[in-house]
Amino acid sequence: MNRAQLLIAVALLTLPAGAVETLSPEELEPGMKGYGLSVFSGYEIERFEVEIIDVMFDVSPGSDMILCRLSGHDLEKTGIIAGMSGSPVYIDDKLIGAIAYGWGFAKEPIGGITPISEMLALWDIPTRANGARRTIGIAGGELSTLRLPLAMSGLNPSLSGLVEPALADFGLMPVAAASGQLSADSGLPLDSTLVPGGAIAVSYIAGDVVAAAVGTITHREGDRIVAFGHPMIRGGAIEMPFAAAKIHAVMPGIRESFKLFSPTELVGTMNQDRLPAVAGSIGPVPELTPVSIKLTTPTANSEFNYRVVDLPALTPILTAYGLSEIVYASEGSYEDMTLVSRTSLAFNDTCTITIKHIHTGLDPAAMLFRRTLDELQFLLGSPFGTPTLDSVRVELEFVPGKQAVYITGARPSRWTVAPGESLDLAVTLRREDGNEEKKSVLIGVPLTTPEGPLTVSVSSRDSLFYRETMRAPGATQPQSFEHLCRVLERTGGENILAVAGFSTRPGITIKGKELPDPPPSLRRVLQGGIGTESIATTAESVVFSRMIPLDDVIAGVVEIQLEVRR
Amino acid sequence: MNLNTLVIALLAGNLWTSTGIEGFLPSDERIGSKSENVAFLHDGTVMLAPAIKELAALGDASIWSIAAARNGTVYLGTGNAGRVYRVTGSRIDTIFDADAGEILALCTDARGNVYFAATPGGTIYRLRPGNEPEAWFETGEDYVFSLLPGTGGAIFCATGINGRLYRIDGKDRGKVIFAARQAHLTALAWLDEERELLVGTAPDGIVYQLGLTADRDAPRLSVLYDTPLAEVRTLAVTDNPTVYIGANPDEESEACSTGWVGCVDMDGVLQWQWTAPDSTVFALLAKEDGVLVATGGVGRIHRLDAMGRATVLQNTESANAVALLPVSDRTLIGTTDPALLLALGDGYARSGTLESEPHDCAGPSRFGRISSLADVPAGTGLEFDTRSGNSELPDSTWNDWLEVTTGSTSPVARFVQWRARLTSGFPGRTPVLRRVDLYYDAPNRSPAISGLEVEQVELTAAERGNNDPIREITWQVEDADGDSLEFELLFRGEIEQRWKSLVDRTGTPSHELDTRTLPDGWYRFRLTASDAVSRPANLARTSELTILPVLVDNSPPVVSGISARGRNAACSVRDAHSTIASCRVSVNAGPWQPLGPEDGILDETQENFSGPVELEPGENTLTFWAADAQGNTATGSIVVNR
């Protein structure tokens, strides 16, 4: 137990515990007045006024919503503030629920309260520790739920433009939060923060990169808490760390206002993320997926480490964000650069995949973000169960300037070739400045090459892979998670000049494995299995392939057709 | 019509005869015929097939390869999950599972080791007795088609798609000893063990002969035989030695669409060849008196004797029979779709059935006796059933099978089918069926007259004055029952009342009419066709056809009104029945000069002609000649002075 956890444990002993007195929606009447609690600055829990407008029963099956008007604390000006989610509301000092709903551009601070009985029911649902299944998570709150401010360190405009759309689908509102984690022992009054009305930050990323969503604790009994009054990403049985939070300021906005905050050290685990609330316990902090980055630039070598939550729907965005954030923080993105990445992903204690990319141009960090996001979403969203990402290790290397060439042509030394012969292929590469250079590639045509047309494709290895997905979809269609990893490893290599030859002889793919140009008897039998098994045909068969590493990112594809004659 | 399924029309009924291999062997099981446990011999007879027994039915798609250890344990290489099974008695154990792929090659050596190879991937595994399989040698090839042990302890490995032959002398110790220009080395067989190795290839379908005596690492290479097909799939060698080659066409590039077996001697001379009725030849197994052939498309086992004559020995009920292996007194068969392990015994099956294809009697028919020509030794049996129905394919609307021995016959119907049931109480005896006759009484159908023509004078002949009064009258008649027919040809003048017979009771479909025996005029002709010669009078049917009137005109036209004035000659020509076809004039026996009709068209029985002529000074003799449309001619003349 670290010092922060010890302090929390001590604080818990001094807190009042036990069931709270509550009022159900049926007991409320329009015009009833009460108050709510939330933090608007620092750690101080302050009161605001609440008047019941009405109760909307069954707004969704089995769920009610209490409509209310808020006042005090300048809420008439700011409207309901993102970050107030979970603020407890009391009528006659009895808890009725949590502020959870608000409407953007509203002229009055009218909000919706989730009844406390629906929130407390989460404590009766099994957690992962009690055998609940790990889920992917599907989306954020309802249309009118208060958005959760997601404080992200170093959120510059370029990165914000990338992550905002992805996070909006989960009801998360990224806001720049310059500071990292606050130390738990730097005067943090734990006994007065982790209580109803106190600010609570659920951590998505921790370490050298920080991302956390802030809301308010609605109720606490012993070490158990409920908060937010609405879901985060409907993750079901989750395991996400949380912390207390210091509110630096309330940022008034036209559409909506939000709280600027910094999280403290992690102090507990949120283990439920469902429609009426999030729920968790103060105490042990869950394991997070470690991401380590080794960054090499012309001037320095650095290492960074951060950890991301295990939420298959969000882990890809968060990991990619962290990577790009480090790139932006290290080198910026406002000049041409070339970024070489080598990413190793370890899954399920057994499977490791390494993908190499080279990105070049004005904003390689954005390219890195998109590629990492795509690949992690592809892996974590695979149809072969939900794999566990054990660790991420990334080696990044920067080279100033853009390093790119475009394939503009390829001319063979002759157009007709016999099996077993070689020929020179002069590949024309054009640079950014318009200068062209010839790259001579020696092609050996195998002795067993069938007579007839021979298509020669010249491209980057990455582009060749996408050609392969069209030529032999059965071979690139993943058959298992391990196969998916191997298929994905064939991507990348944007700087590798790939010269591949294809005959018009048909081939067969079986469960992801390719049999090129099989003899007639074998082909007939295997084709008989099409439709009954994972068997497909290919229109071409690979005859040869050559991979030639270059220093530049290669763009463009050229195909020529040779004639093979004996 | 199949010559071996004859239908003969009898005086009272029809006879449907089935005989010969083409008459008995169902041409296509989709049309409702099938056989079970019967063999179709090259001489056209049918007998019980060798007994076949299912030893294992796997959930895999294919059994590609079979090998047996000396202790009788059988190993199966399968696809498409790349599994290897061990079969010990009735117990089947999975000893290797590649999850995906094909185990095309499997063999055992003298020490009891089992070798198998995964395709794709090219890894060769070894299973030593009492151990788990171990990766033994990595070829790195896409395909491993064949593994062949040598007496020296090496394993020879035929691969694709780089056409390489490996000799593997131990774990991780192998080398390429031959690289063909063909993509695939598909088959291996010893012509002379450790000395001469045969290698089959695709896509060129060549059988290479590799001499290993001089240099084990660089064999002497020659071509034993170049087949006309794309793929040599399998090889078998007899002790004498004779080489059997099983080859297949590439449907992409060759006209031949079925498998092929060739018998080649040591000199590479093709002694005989056999074209399989099925699409693909997969496996050969040399026997003392010929070779067994496993084929695909229908999944049959054929036996070719030393002369290449084929017997359809058994049907595996799988789509493809792909592997053969002799084990003691039986032959193991591996199949695909479904993957079955079958055992073909030496003795005959205890029972078998042969269903004929449904026969179309062309209409509701009564069925009579079924008889057969057969040898039925003591202890064997041959019985027949029939069934009938009115749809082309037997279905639920058909009547049930009826045993012929009960004396009952299938109900009246258009289609009929027979079933022969062969039985034997002794493995060494079988009934032999040579011919089946089924009598039926189909409804008699009328002859169909499709044409009756009277030869006409062609206009070009008529213009030249050629009138052959002998006209041939021909007719076309068919009888769907195949009955013999008799014809009667009659005529009647257009204004006459009674039909008169020109010819009667002739079987010849033509008649020559001398039109001079008839006065000029229009005549109708009528043909009657009767099958009375084939049918009893009360069942005989007659058809008739009367054609439009035909003109008979053998009288010449009349030339009159001849004149020659100035430089112009003229005449008038008239005929009683026919239009005028042409008119000419000759001056002083000079060449004929055509005269044109004054109204510009030859369309009437009277025409006036005129035309310019060149007259000599003094007396001139003008001769006029005219013909009618039947070729009858007339002349006239005039002498004039200029």
Provide a quick synopsis of the model.
The complex is a heterodimer of chains A (566) and B (642). Chain A is of the alpha+beta class and 566 residues long. Chain A contains 11 helices and 32 strands.
Essential attributes:
heterodimer, A: 566 residues, alpha+beta, Thrombin, subunit H, Dna Ligase, domain 1, 6-stranded antiparallel barrel, 6-stranded antiparallel beta barrel, 32 strands, 45% strand, disordered N terminus, B: 642 residues, mainly beta, 11-stranded antiparallel β-sheet, 8-stranded antiparallel β-sheet, 2 helices, elongated
Describe it.
- With 566 residues, chain A is of the alpha+beta class.
- Chain A folds into 3 domains: 1-286, Trypsin-like serine proteases (Thrombin, subunit H), CATH 2.40.10; 290-400, Dna Ligase, domain 1 (2-Layer Sandwich); 404-564, no CATH class.
- Chain A has 11 helices and 32 strands.
- In chain A, the strands form 5 sheets. In chain A, strands 1-2-3-7-6-5 form a 6-stranded antiparallel β-barrel. Chain A has a 6-stranded antiparallel β-barrel with strand order 10-11-12-15-14-13.
- In chain A, strand 13 and strand 14 (257-274) form a beta hairpin.
- The radius of gyration of chain A is 29 Å and the shape is elongated.
- Chain B is mainly β.
- In chain B, strands 1, 2, 3, 4, 5, 34, 35, 36, 37, 38 and 39 form an 11-stranded antiparallel β-sheet that branches. In chain B, strands 7, 8, 9, 10, 11, 12, 13 and 14 form an 8-stranded antiparallel β-sheet that branches. In chain B, strands 42, 43, 45, 46 and 47 form a 5-stranded antiparallel β-sheet that branches.
- In chain B, strand 31 and strand 32 form a beta hairpin.
- The longest helix of chain B is centred in the first third of the chain and has 5 residues, at 20-24.
- Chain B is elongated, with a radius of gyration of 40 Å.
- The mean pLDDT of chain B is 91.
- Chain A binds chain B through residues 419-420, 446-448, 450, 479-480, 506, 510-522, 524-526, 528-529, 532-533, 535, 541, 566, and chain B through 61-62, 79-81, 99-102, 104, 119-121, 142-143, 145, 160-163, 179-184, 186, 202-203, 230-231, 233, 248-252, 279-282, 296, 319-320, 322, 336-337.
